[in-house]
Amino acid sequence: MRLGVHMRISEGLEAAARTAAEIGCETIQVFAANPNAWNSPPIEPANGALFRKLTTDFGLHPVAVHTPYLLNLASPDWRIYLASAHVLADHVRRAEAIGANFVVTHIGSHKGSGIEQGIKRVASAISKALNQSTGKTALLLENSAGSGDSIGSKFENLRAILDQLSDCAVKLGICLDTAHLWGAGYDVSNKDEIERTFEAFDSIVGMKHLKLLHLNDTKVELGSRVDRHANIGVGKIGEQGFHALLHYQPLANLAGVIEVPAKSIETDIHDLGVLKRLREK
Predict the structure, then answer these.
(1) pLDDT digits (tens, 9 = 90+) for 136-146
(2) What is the model's pTM?
C-alpha cells in the first residue's frame, strides 16, 4: 500500500507537494480551496501546472483533493444543497486543473427528511457534477461514522447511491475512512475482523469500487457513531489493526492517506513513520 498524508495548503500547493516529498510521502491529499469557505479564488493555471509537474516528478500518486467541510449534498435546505452541489462541481474542475486522480467528498446529512430523499439529492448533485466534467478525475464517496442523520455509515447506503448513478459509474468510487468504519461499528482492529469487514463490503458494495483509504486511528468505542480521529497506533484500532490492514492483500494496490490530528509537521512525520514501520514488519 502506498502511504501519504493530507498536506496543508496554507503556504500554497507547491509547498504542499515539496513538503510531502521531503517527509517521505508516496501519495498526497490536499484541499484545493479554503476548506471552511463556500467561495475561493480560482487556481491560477501556472500553479496548477507546477503542482502537476511536482507530484509527477516526486512520484506522488495517486493525488486526491478533499472537498470543503461545509458541503451537505443531502441537505433538505435548498440554499445549502445548491451551494453544496455548486462547490462539488467546482472541486471536480479544481482537481482536474491540478492533475488529481480523485476528489473525496463527505456525503452529508438528510437532517430528518429521510434517508431515501437524502440519497436522491446526493445522487442528483453528483450526476450533475460528473456529467459537467470533461476530465478523468473520479469522485469518491467517503463513508461516515453515523452521527445524527448522516448518510454513508452503512455499506448499504453507499450501494444505494452507486445504484442511482450507473450513468457515471466510470468516474465514481468509494473512499473508506478507518476511524469512520470503527465509529459505524465495523471492526478493523485485527486480522479476522478486517477480513469480516471487507468481505461484507465486497458483498454489498464491491471491492472494485474501493479506490482510496483514509488511515486514521480513533478515540471512541466501536459503534459509538462518533468521529474522533487519533494518531496512528494510540487509539482503539491500534498498531495491531493498522498492521493487519497494511498486510491485507485485497488492499495492497490502494493508497492510504493519514488525516490524524497534526499539531506540526513532526506529527505527520511520526505517524507516517509508524505506518511505514508496520508495513515492513
Answers:
(1) 999 999 999 99
(2) 0.97
